[in-house]
Automatic annotation (TrEMBL):
EC number: 1.8.-.-
The protein's name: CoB--CoM heterodisulfide reductase iron-sulfur subunit A
GO molecular function: 4 iron, 4 sulfur cluster binding; metal ion binding; oxidoreductase activity
Listed transmembrane segments: none
Family membership: Belongs to the HdrA family.
Biological role: Part of a complex that catalyzes the reversible reduction of CoM-S-S-CoB to the thiol-coenzymes H-S-CoM (coenzyme M) and H-S-CoB (coenzyme B).
Organism annotation: Methanofollis tationis
Length: 671
């Protein structure tokens, strides 16, 4: 805090950003104006300040004019603050003696047609930045060690890929999955576009690799209960839900040698309780003690205690393995990790909310995920597509695209769910191939086949005879006698109304973030976009990161994407999450709160206000005073804004700096 005071000697550099800035305001006039400001020793301008020659101007000016502070008037600090801080440091100044004035995103881009106004606003921004730069102090980032372990939350294909990559890079990885098995939605699919490989065949080897990787500790039927800490040192408490069945390891730990579940299924055979299997969307039954499907990883049964009648038949059938504990309760475990990847995926939008399409009203209206199970050889019908109403093989099937997507009515979702066009093309192919003479009709708004070999796949489906009707389906009605369906739409290419009678309708329902994901998102301090998907740090330059240091995103939790894009993002997230771990330490921005102990009354009110639990009260020299854990403090300023005694000092956002900025704005202006 205490620093040798020197008269401010500021250098100002105004960037043209090609024509991004210079096309909308007078850069030269801003430069000339900067020269008139108190403390400004040199003012320059350049085409691209972020380029090597631009940065060299900063470096040279610091040395030549013995500057104490730098202002660059250019783009957003989110983009280039680190670049200019480095240039400031290379010139020999502390990098935190740099201030940025945003004259692009907040000025030239929004005032493109107001040259005079934009120029005046740029001058204001420069004046405000110079006022702060005059009061900047040397700051020093803190280094904290990073735990050599990572956590991945969600074990769909995204989470699986991320965990395998981290583990293969030598990092101990905890993979957390809330359901009894890993695999996510991909394990429910039959084939995958555009190559039509069998989904299970390409996913199962990865699932098996997870199960036996020495660096992966798999926790299924487990959820994150609480998160404490910060990058490098997250303490994460897990709730291991009572599954009622012990693994061999758990049994051994309890002294049951050679015991634990081996997946033999003897319990399943005797259990008297029958329930719908959610993996099959209720189209197949399961028992109260169950596995979702034969390829589950880990192959351990789970008891649904909401429906178990505790008859004890399974305990008897399990015999010497003694795997079943009907009195098992949730247990908790806290683990420490350096970085985290969230990969919580998606759920289908409840399409019954769109009443006009008749889902859950008419038997023969199904969703695309139900179609996947019906067409899959391991599904409830052994891969035979049948009408739910009478078990007949359909001869005419309509696929309704954008069912709830690109929907601004307030009931659906305004965004594109991105994979529905492609999987509906796949579905049309599957029925054409499996049911000779069956006609597929696709009702679409546009076909979005943007990926590699996707457009070719679209042509192939056209060639196979699928008929495409461009128009959104208005409503669907059932013929009560035949259970056939009338699909009403407008063919917008022919400009004609359509009333098509089909045997079955498949709704390509929109997708939405997984239920309950807000709780886990908030525990990690991750924001979401307007539509609920987790928010990346930057859509182009940091699509795997979040604004919480050390927390990364993979797969559909960040926004709808298909399997190739999910896997690619998972690999990116794993790489990003492994960097701090391999570095062994991270530097934290020094924007911490500091307690001015002489002024602190020890009331402790700030302690409860801090959203990051960074404050506590300590005894010092016979007094109670506030103490900051710097590694936890995010410099949000909540405590500083509140403290009635003015006892909190916010580094880099001090009261004198902020007052100087306000004064510069209100009292300044061109003389
Ligand atoms: C009908 C249909 C057909 C499709 N066909 C194809 C295709 O042919 N080709 C293609 O490329 N893509 C296809 N897709 C898209 C594909 O399903 C997704 O790209 C892929 O599943 C995304 O994987 P993910 O890991 O991001 O999410 P998910 O598969 O949703 O996995 C997320 C996992 O996280 C778990 N989880 C959620 N919340 C928590 C929590 N709080 N704690 C712990 N675990 C949690 C979930 O239980 C789940 O296991 C299709 C989608 C649909 C709907
Ligand atoms: S009988 Fe025992 S070992 Fe066999 S599947 Fe059931 S719980 Fe597992
Ligand atoms: S810093 Fe302020 S709010 Fe916090 S304990 Fe001290 S006096 Fe109270």
């Amino acid at each position: 805090m205490a620093e040798e005071k020197k008269q401010p000697r500021i250098g100002v550099f105004v960037c043209h950003c090609g024509t991004n800035i210079a096309g909308s305001l007078d850069v030269k006039a801003v430069q000339d104006y900067a020269r008139t400001l108190p403390g400004v020793i040199v003012a320059d301008e350049y085409q691209y300040m972020c380029s090597t020659p631009g940065q060299k101007k900063i470096d040279d000016a610091i040395k030549e004019h013995d500057l104490t502070g730098i202002v660059v008037a250019a783009c957003s600090p989110r983009l280039h603050e680190p670049t200019f801080r480095t240039a400031t440091k290379e010139g020999g100044l502390n990098p935190f003696r740099f201030e940025m004035a945003n004259i692009r995103e907040q000025n030239s881009w929004v005032h493109m047609h107001d040259y005079e106004g934009a120029t005046a606003k740029a001058k204001d921004a420069v004046r405000i930045a110079v006022a702060k730069a005059a009061l900047l102090e040397d700051l020093y980032p803190k280094s904290v060690p990073v735990e050599h372990a990572a956590m991945v939350v969600g074990a769909g294909v995204g989470g699986i890929q991320a965990a395998l990559d981290l583990a293969s890079a030598g990092i101990k990885t905890y993979l957390i999955e809330k359901t009894p098995t890993i695999g996510g939605r991909m394990s429910q699919l039959d084939k995958t576009f555009p190559t039509l490989d069998c989904s299970q065949c390409i996913l199962t080897p990865k699932m098996v690799d997870v199960g036996r990787h020495p660096n992966i500790e798999l926790h299924t039927y487990t959820e994150v209960e609480a998160v404490e800490g910060y990058i490098g040192n997250f303490d994460i408490t897990l709730r291991k839900k009572a599954r009622g069945v012990m693994t061999p390891t758990e049994a051994t730990a309890k002294g049951i040698v050679g015991g634990g579940c081996n997946g033999c299924g003897d319990c399943d055979a005797v259990c008297p309780v029958i329930k719908p299997n959610p993996f099959e969307f209720g189209m197949k039954p399961r028992k109260a003690i169950y596995i979702y499907h034969p390829q589950v990883v880990p192959l351990i049964y789970t008891i649904d205690f909401d429906s178990c009648v505790k008859c004890g038949l399974c305990v008897e059938a399990c015999g010497e393995k003694k795997a079943i504990d009907l009195n098992m309760e949730d247990s908790f475990e806290t683990v420490k990790v350096g970085t985290v990847i969230l990969a919580t995926g998606y759920d289908a939008f409840p399409i019954e909310k769109k009443r006009e399409w008749g889902y859950k009203q008419f038997d023969n209206v199904i969703t695309s995920l139900e179609f996947e199970r019906l067409i899959c050889a391991s599904g409830p019908t052994g891969g035979h597509l049948i009408r739910p109403s009478d078990g007949a093989t359909p001869k005419k099937v309509a696929f309704v695209l954008c069912a709830g997507s690109r929907d601004n009515t307030g009931v659906g979702k305004p965004y594109c769910s991105r994979f529905c066009c492609m999987y509906s093309l796949k579905h049309a192919h599957q029925i054409t191939e499996k049911i000779p003479g069956c006609q597929a009709y696709i009702f679409y708004m546009d076909i979005r086949s943007f990926g590699k070999m996707y457009e070719e796949f679209y042509y192939r489906i056209q060639d196979e005879g699928t008929k495409f009707i461009r128009g959104r389906v208005a409503n669907i009605l059932e013929d009560a006698k035949t259970k056939n369906l009338h699909v009403y739409a407008e063919d917008t290419l022919l400009g004609q109304p359509v009333d098509m009678v089909v045997d079955m309708v498949v709704l390509a329902a929109a997708v939405e973030p997984t239920q309950g994901v807000d709780t886990v998102r908030k525990m990690f301090g991750v924001s979401c976009s307007q539509d609920g998907w987790m928010l990346e740090a930057h859509p182009k330059l940091n699509p795997c990161g979040t604004t919480t240091a050390g927390v990364f995103l993979a797969g559909v939790c960040q926004g709808p994407k298909d399997i190739p894009d999910t896997v690619a993002q998972a690999e990116g997230a794993a790489s990003a999450a492994s960097i701090p771990i391999h570095m062994g330490k991270v530097e934290l921005e020094p924007y911490f709160a500091q307690c001015i102990e002489e002024k602190c009354a020890g009331c402790g009110m700030c302690v409860n206000l801090c959203p990051y639990s960074a404050l506590d009260l300590i005894e010092k020299d016979g007094r109670t005073v506030m103490h900051v854990t710097e590694a936890k403090c995010k410099g949000c300023g909540t405590c500083g804004g509140f403290c009635p005694g003015g006892a909190i000092y916010m580094q880099h956002f001090t009261t004198p700096q902020i007052v100087a900025q306000i004064d510069a704005f209100l009292l300044g202006g061109e003389q």
